Hints:
The chain is an alpha+beta fold.
Amino acid sequence: MKVLDRYILTTYLKTFISVFLILMLIFILQTIWLYIKELAGKDLDLMIVGKFLMYFMPKLIPLVVPLTILLSSIMVFGSFAENYEFAAMKSTGISLQRSMSGLSIFIVVLAFMTFWFSNNVIPWAELNSYNLRRNIAKLKPAMAIAEGQFNEIMNYNIKVEKKSGDKGQFLEDVTIHIKGSDGRKNATTIKSKTGELASSKDSEVLKLILYDGNYYSDVTPSKAQDKKKVPFAKSTFEKYIINIDLSKMNEVDLDEQSQTDKYNMLSINGLSKAIDSLEKRKVDDHKSLAKILLQRSTVIKNPNTKTVKDKATEENIKRDSIYSGEILDLFNTRKKVELVDAAARRSVSVRQIISSKKATLKKSKEWLNKHYISLYEKFALGFACIILFFVGAPLGALIRKGGIGLPMVVAILLFLTYHFIGIFATNSAKNGSFNPILASWFSTLVMLPLGITLTRRATADRGLFEIGNVSEPFKKIFKIKEKNGVDYKFLNSLTNQELFNIIKNYETLGHEEGVRYEAIQILKSKGIDSKALREYHVEIDNSFDSSESITDDYHDHSKFAIILYSIGAVLLVLFFIFRNNKLPSLASASIQLSIVSFTLFIVYYIKSIINTFQFYRHINKREKKLSIFFLILGIPLYMIAYPFLRVKVKEDLRLNCLESLK
């Protein structure tokens, strides 16, 4: 290893380890804060708390390692640039890529280690942390009665709207569901206005005293006919005492692992097997549904139960194979009624089957998508480490600032962007609105072009932003004048003849060339077109008329496009508002109109782009045409792209006009 590579690697490792430890400590403290309720008051020894943190630490790696790589890269390479170490390297012929090459090998090795970690250690940590939390929750359930939610204790599901008192022993608006003998169905419901926890802190019996309430209990009759009536018993009480034996619950083995097959507890092999099983089950479910629907779709009776008349009718239909009339006309009135009634009953039954099966299939799909996301996130994490390095290293070289200040701000902003894109993508994929495989890679793929762009700019020794290129369009959009810019307002007070004179003799009158175009625009606003200008001996090339016609078409199409885009965006927002407020009819109308508006927007957007290509081909300046990347980006961001496009076309038309004047 050369001295330079050793120096860069040593500097990077020092920063990397320091940042990693600091970030890990921050996230561990956040973990303790999030789960303090689950740990407090359970008489847990330090060994159990240590296990709890040890199981949660590996799950922080997907957050900590990418952020550490990004922040360390910006800090180290920013420090090199700030201290002119890169300038010294370049003076000896060492490029940025060469200085990054040795460190790139370390990042690739780290990416493979992260992949191995996510495939082996993180599933182990998920398995142990999940089961440890479940076991801890069983200890002292009296403390687990939280306000405003159902709390499961043994066979009781208890909900309390409000707790008061110095120990939280006084309860208001208590609802209790007691499970039946099967352990699943809620057979008894108790509601009371107030209640009190009367047991001592260390008691193995949870004593719950309820006041002023009602007791509802399901009754299971022996006859099937009576079950349809859903009978139940109801009673009213002023005081009711419930004693829940907690002795068995407090005999908890904290190392017990009752669940081992959750998607985030599996390695790649386990996930692949689980996905194969879920895919097979999905196919079987669809086949089963199709079979059921097929069986219920026919109105023909079993062949063994057909009457002679039914068989004769079928024979008539078979003989008359080209019959094109109404099928019901082949049957008598009584048979018609039977057929229509049977079809109506079967259609209702089929709708009920589809409705119930739809919810089941939706949950199965969500569960399958979670397995896909968990599988491909293991691969994406390793690649994210590499890509974020190629974002951070050139970015540090461009901002030329080391230390904690600016690099920390930039790194956090970039990482939050990367992280939230990933969260939004995976959440969308879980409910099936986004491809789960693409969702796992989405945030990484978004960062890829940024890394390529930054590396190219840093290699070419260009600045992070070219202020002139960025600010110039804004100045033209908002009509911000330069400090020494020319003000053409004086032209508004001149007569037509004076304007003609300025167009023909601008140099003699001491004006710059741009005044000619402004004078022409004022004359055109007064109804004097190019043909009339030529009659007043203003020599302007005939090709300018075509240029102006094309740009007029462009302006018309772009105006329609921005209006349709705005309508579509507003309707899309209204769709989400109506849907969240449970107004399905308005939500359906909004999304349909939004789709129509966006479709028409695409049509007019394409027309406006075709106009720009025609314009630049007409003026023989194809090099000025818009890039494909900008045109694609302009579709979702047309509200931003629209003013820039109009300014560009207007400016190029002005230049073409000046070139057309003789």
